[in-house]
Amino acid sequence: MPKGSNVPVPAPAVRVEIGWRSGPGVPDADASALLLVSGKVRSDSDFVFYNQADHASGAVRHDGKRTAGGQVTDALVVDFARVEPEIETVVLAASADGGTFGQIPGLHVRLLDAANGAELARYDSGDASAETAFVLGELYRRQGAWKFRAVGQGYDSGLAGLATDFGIAVDEPQATPPSSPPQPSPAPPASAVPAVPAPAPAVPTPPAAVPAAPAAPVSLNKVTLTKESPAVSLTKQGGTSGAMRVNLNWQVRKPPQAKGLMAKLNQAVAAAQAGGLDLDLGALYELADGRKGVVQAVGNTFGALHEPPYLHLDADDRTGARSSGENLTINLDHAHDFKRILIFVMIYEGARSFADLNATVTLSPQHGAPVDFHLDECTVPSTVCALALLTQEGGDLVVRREAAYLVPERGVSMQRTLDHAYGWGMNWTPGRK
To answer: Where is the composition biased (Pro residues) (predicted)?
Structure first.
């Protein structure tokens, strides 16, 4: 679609994928949506992005990132049946993280039928330069039907500037001018103090109405864990209630071009195997009452969100074809019931180690800033990796980056290897998917 053009949207719900090509030095980007009435949001709750993933109406949700074949997408899902009648427009935007859109190749937005994945529209932006935020498109009502327009409007003020332009109050540190010390008032001379009559009886006055506290502004903060700063308190971040989604994204590193016929043949075989890569996300848990267990696809132990263990794995993505990958959800309303949770990933098939995988882990609390980190390059023949450990420490729920690649001994399962390394003390039996 050319910029400014529009098309009808025949689907009752759509998946919006904002995508780009990945590569060395390419900044990350984040998708967002704003629900507008007369060109402005009604309140900060009409802003859907990585820190506020679901609209209260259920009409729009942030569905997260996906990496495949050198392409990265960050997705939103819009259910038109749930869009409130007064909402006229849903703006579809992106913000650059760590650079500008001139450094992000292949920027585009695709509109897909949420039911069958059929592409309904696509707009490719080819004129980005110093912008750090972009409105790529918008969904809008016309005579009771929905249409999509390609917009392509850039901002050099980032996500904060874009959000503020549509009426969002953004939480940003403001410089406070130094305050002058109070100056004492001079006392009047004694002779100048007038006589005053005795005070009249006090007449009670009704208490003044206390104004309602203004809503807290939207926070655009992110938390990135590194080797130097490997842990963060979810309690101090305000992320100890609601659901927290754990998402793992990965892509296969392209090795240098092999030389020689046999080397090229071996490289082709390895690439074919990686194309069928099946990674399994899971968690070992220990509850405050002493119960222990595992949530994983092996053995179909998918857990439960609203009863012990308060962890749930949504599905087993055997091929990488699911747009949202595998997601583990943790019910933080029961954070006091957790003693510790170890989040891990295993190679079920398609690769012999994590050596050629480039992965990012993102923990997205319903409230509070998302926590993400990259897995370091693997230098051992590892098939199981401990990603992160959640523990109760001094009344705080703390998430700690582990990024520990483990090598199972011959005949020892990956789960038993994790158990031994972290002292879980469970009995294991063979299981299958």
So the answer is: 175-209
Q: Are 91 and 166 in contact (CB under 8 A)?
A: yes
**259-260-261 Cα angle (round to 5):** 130
Quick one: which of 277, 220, 268 has its CA closest to 248? 277
- Distance between CA atoms of residues 398 and 389, nearest Å: 8
CA distances from 376 to 256, 341, 366, 382, 402 (A): 19, 21, 27, 13, 10
User: Do 331 and 310 touch, CB atoms closer than 8 A?
Assistant: yes
Phi-psi group of 362: left, alpha or beta (phi > 0 → left; psi -120 to 50 → alpha; rest → beta): beta
> Confidence class of residue 50 from pLDDT cuts 50, 70 and 90?
confident
Q: Would you say domain 223-422 falls under CATH 2.60.60.30?
A: yes
356-366: per-residue pLDDT in tens? Answer: 777 788 898 88
Q: Which CATH architecture has domain 6-165?
A: Sandwich (2.60)
Q: Where are the domains of the chain?
A: 6-165, 223-422
The confidence band for 390, taking pLDDT boundaries of 50, 70 and 90, is very high
Binning pLDDT at 50, 70 and 90, where does residue 187 land?
very low
Backbone angles phi, psi at 271, to 5 degrees: -65, -40
Query: Quick one: what percent of the chain has pLDDT higher than 90?
Result: 55
Three-state SS string over the chain comes to CCCCCEEECCCCEEEEEEEEECCCCCCEEEEEEEEEECCECCCHHHEEECCECECCCCCEEEEEEEEECCEEEEEEEEEHHHCCCCCCEEEEEEEEECCCHHHCCCCEEEEEECCCCCEEEEEECCCCCCCCEEEEEEEEEECCEEEEEEEEEEECCHHHHHHHHCCCCECCCCCCCCCCCCCCCCCCCHHHCCCCCCCCCCCCCCCCCCCCCCCCCECCCCEECCCCCCEEECCCCCCCCCEEEEEEEEEECCCCCCCCHHHHHHHHHHHHHHHCCEEEEEEEEEECCCCEEEEECHHHECEECCCCCCEEECCCCCCCCCCCCCEEEEEHHHHHHEEEEEEEEEEEECCCCCCCEEEEEEEEECCCCCEEEECCCCCCCCCEEEEEEEEEECCEEEEEEEEEEECCCCCCCHHHHHHHHHCCCCCCCCCCC
Domains 6-165 and 223-422 share a fold: yes
